[in-house]
């Protein structure tokens, strides 16, 4: 999709939200913009082996840790491998990672990600053998095992090869069983701490006001306080059940706010302009210089019956072309006008990126410019 189309879509969305062209804040539920501090996820990690690949595993000479792990696993299963040398290529050492959800109970299943450690070329068709997953405290919280699903593929012939996606990483859906629950208990909490996913003082205060308005109707006293741009503290009333309190609060609707930003990805040419972005009145002109170098060598033949030699005479033609559009006045009091002004200049994505960076340098872009 061309950048002009992307900008036009942004303009149409802004116009649909507010036909007059003035940005309006979005109303969202608290559960969509904030998370419970005691309900955060925890990261798990483990080291294991994937077996069953068709000759695409680790080469045991280049990955000695794979052979050591395989020998240790077989010894634990009662099989002696001393004195034997294995040349198997269907085993790969992997790192296994997973996120332990909040309030997870023993017996429930979670997805795990598997990534190759050695020189294996593909994990397709492999099976992850029993792997313990530990947390930051060193305790085992889950055990993973199952078939590895790899989205990428690779094909190779005598003179060419094709690889699509990543073949050395995959997932095991529902491959880990939780063996230990987290020590903290939700019911033991004396208050609730709501953490905003996008920190903002205005949104934080509005969340506290919405919770206090609900608390005054229910218990007659306010229970929430905005600590900073990210945290809102909610005190638990004596007569309230904490689970029901959280269920009621997370469905309250709050008008969100966010700072104006322009996000630019120079690699892909993607530009995302926020609804609150403003541009002061500026004059913009964009021009490019194109230099074309053409090599047309000529072959010079010697005269007949002469002792001369055939020579190659180089000939280079260099042309320069400078193109520049007219000077356009760009004034963006709202998103729709800004997008229309950028489209009227008629430049390519890299040109619009350069224009936005120059407008920011001139101090006319009233927004944060984020370069990715």
TrEMBL record:
Alphabetically ordered keywords of this record: Bacterial flagellum, Cell projection, Cilium, Flagellum, Periplasm, Signal
Residues in the signal sequence: 1-25
Localization terms from the record: Bacterial flagellum basal body
Entry annotated with the keyword Metal-binding: no
Single GO cellular component term: outer membrane-bounded periplasmic space
Molecular function via GO: structural molecule activity
Biological process terms in GO annotation: bacterial-type flagellum-dependent cell motility
Main location: other
Pfam assignment, any one: FlgI
Role description: Assembles around the rod to form the L-ring and probably protects the motor/basal body from shearing forces during rotation.
Family: Belongs to the FlgI family.
Subunit description: The basal body constitutes a major portion of the flagellar organelle and consists of four rings (L,P,S, and M) mounted on a central rod.
NCBIfam families the record matches: PRK05303.1
Protein name (database record): Flagellar P-ring protein
Species of origin: Rhizobium deserti
């Amino acid at each position: 999709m061309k950048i002009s189309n992307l900008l036009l879509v942004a303009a149409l969305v802004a116009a649909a939200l507010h036909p007059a062209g003035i940005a309006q804040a979005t109303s969202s539920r608290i559960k969509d913009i904030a998370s419970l501090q005691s309900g955060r996820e925890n990261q798990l990690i483990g080291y294991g082996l994937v077996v069953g690949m068709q000759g695409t595993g680790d080469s045991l000479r280049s990955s000695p840790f794979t052979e050591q792990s395989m020998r240790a696993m077989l010894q634990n299963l009662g099989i002696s491998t001393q004195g034997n040398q294995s040349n198997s290529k269907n085993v790969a050492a992997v790192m296994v990672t997973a996120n332990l959800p909040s309030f997870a109970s023993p017996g429930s299943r979670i997805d795990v990600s598997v990534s190759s450690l050695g020189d294996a070329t593909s994990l397709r068709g492999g099976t992850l053998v029993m792997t313990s997953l530990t947390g930051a405290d060193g305790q085992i919280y889950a055990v993973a095992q199952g078939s590895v699903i790899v989205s990428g593929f690779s094909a190779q012939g005598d003179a060419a090869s094709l690889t699509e996606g990543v073949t050395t990483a995959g997932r095991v859906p529902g491959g880990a069983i939780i063996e230990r629950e987290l020590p903290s208990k939700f019911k033991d909490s004396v208050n609730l701490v709501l953490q905003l996913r996008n920190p903002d003082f205005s949104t934080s205060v509005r969340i506290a006001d919405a919770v206090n308005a609900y608390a005054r109707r229910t218990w007659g006293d306010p229970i929430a306080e905005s600590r900073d741009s990210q945290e809102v503290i909610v005190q638990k009333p004596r007569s309230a059940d904490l689970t029901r309190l959280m269920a009621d609060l997370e469905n309250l609707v709050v008008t969100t706010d966010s700072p104006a930003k322009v996000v630019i990805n120079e690699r892909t040419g993607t530009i995302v302009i926020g609804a609150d972005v403003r541009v002061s009145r500026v004059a913009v002109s964009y021009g490019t210089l194109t230099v074309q170098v053409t090599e047309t060598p000529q072959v010079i033949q010697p005269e007949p019956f002469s002792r001369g030699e055939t020579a190659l005479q180089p000939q280079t033609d260099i042309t320069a072309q400078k193109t520049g559009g007219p000077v356009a006045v760009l004034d963006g009091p709202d998103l729709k006008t800004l997008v229309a002004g950028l489209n009227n200049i008629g430049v390519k994505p890299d040109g619009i990126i350069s224009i936005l960076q120059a407008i920011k340098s001139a101090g006319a872009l009233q927004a944060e410019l984020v370069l990715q």
